[in-house]
Every structure is written in structure tokens, then in C-alpha cells.
Amino acid sequence: MFPVFSIGPWHDISTYALAYAVAISIGGTLAYRRLLVFKLPRRTIWLNTLWLAGAVLAGLEGPSLLGMAVNRVSPGILGGNAPTSRVYTALAAGIFVGVFRARRERVDFWRAADRAVLGFALGYGLARFGCYAAGCCGGMRTDASWAVFLPNEAGEWAMRYPMQMISGVAELAIFAGLMLFERARERHGADHPLPGLVFLLYVLLFCLERFAVEFFRADWVALVGPFSAVHVGMFAGMCVSAALIAWRFAQPRATHLSASA
Question: How far is CA 259 from CA 106, 108, 122, 146, 252, in A?
């Protein structure tokens, strides 16, 4: 709704860029503090947090930059389907770099993922409010009772589904729920929280939220029946994360404890 604003001598400040900068800062700080549980030098943990933040940023903006480069070399080759910033590529990039850095530092990936992923969840939830201000990632036009008068990226105002706000609130609820879940397991004396469970639950819930939101998005494009390519990808993500949760539970308890030592 307010893509740019001014503060004193500073004019045309991008609300979107500011929201994402704040989100990455807050999410990265939370991830850093949670990763301190590993007995590594603070400088090492800080550098690895920067690696993760950089990977998330590259995954977020990489598709749009790639689309711009392709269109510059071959104008019109992508038509109206030029890639834009995508949170799921940011998550995938963070996971990829997380696996690499965990092996590099010789720590258990599942435990590290449990500690870091809630920083991503918090940051994503906050960043969605930047999308709301910019008009991107919004909903279709509608006359539904819960519609809001909003612009799209082109500045065209209409009654639309407020999907940015819904997605942001959903992500913050997922973050809060997983924090409470983690603390409840510790408080009730679980022998040891299953390493990777918080991370895999987040991926499952992330995919479920994005799958549901896609039906109402303005950029929805049918691929198979009422389902888009995003639906297919999110369904695959739900299946993989659910299968990994089952696999982790099926492993002997001694394996988890030795891996977490």
C-alpha cells in the first residue's frame, strides 16, 4: 500500500527493501543466537550465519536477476513468464548451503537445521509485510467479504484477496507454534528431541501454507486442472518432508542420541 516513503532528508525509501532487510537481520540474529548451542567459536557461528543469510538472499533474488539477464540478452524470450523472487528457492538455497556448512564444521546437520530454521520462519513472516506494501505476491481480484482494496505491482487498485498478510500471519503462527512445540518437549523431559523434527515440520507446514495460498494468488497459472506448477512443487515438498519425518522416527533411538552428542 505504501511502496515508498520518506523520513526527513531521505526520500523514496523502498518499503519492500526495508522490510526484507529488517526481516533478514532479525531472522539472522535469531538463527545466530540459537546456533550458539554448538560449542564453536562465536566468530565461526557468525560467519556461518552470514553464509546462510547470503544463500537465502541469493535464492530469493536469483530467479528475478536471472530473468532480467535472459531478457536483456534475448528480449521477449520468456514472454510474460519471467521468474520473480521466490521464497521457496530461498529456502532451498539455505538448505543446500546448510548441508555444506554443517559438513564443513563437523556438526550434525539435523540439529543445526532445527536451530536455524526458526530464524528463517520468523524472517519470512516479517518480510511478507514488505510484499503487502509493494503490491507483489498478492491475491486475485474478488468481491469476497474479506477482500481488501489493494494495488498490484503495476499500481492498479482493486478489491483483492490480502494473501500477503494471510501468508505473513500464517508464517508467524508456524514460527510461534514450533517454538512452543520445541519448548514443550524440553519441559516435559523428552529423552532428546528427535534431531531434524522441528526443521522437517517447518518444511511440511511451509509447503502446506504455500499450497493453500496459491489458489488465491493473482499469479496463479493452471498446469494440471486447478493446480499450478507451484502446487506440484509444494505437494512434492510435503511428501518428501513427511517421508523424512517417518524415516527419522523409524531409526533406532540410539542412532539419534549418538548423532546428537
Answer: 11, 7, 27, 48, 11
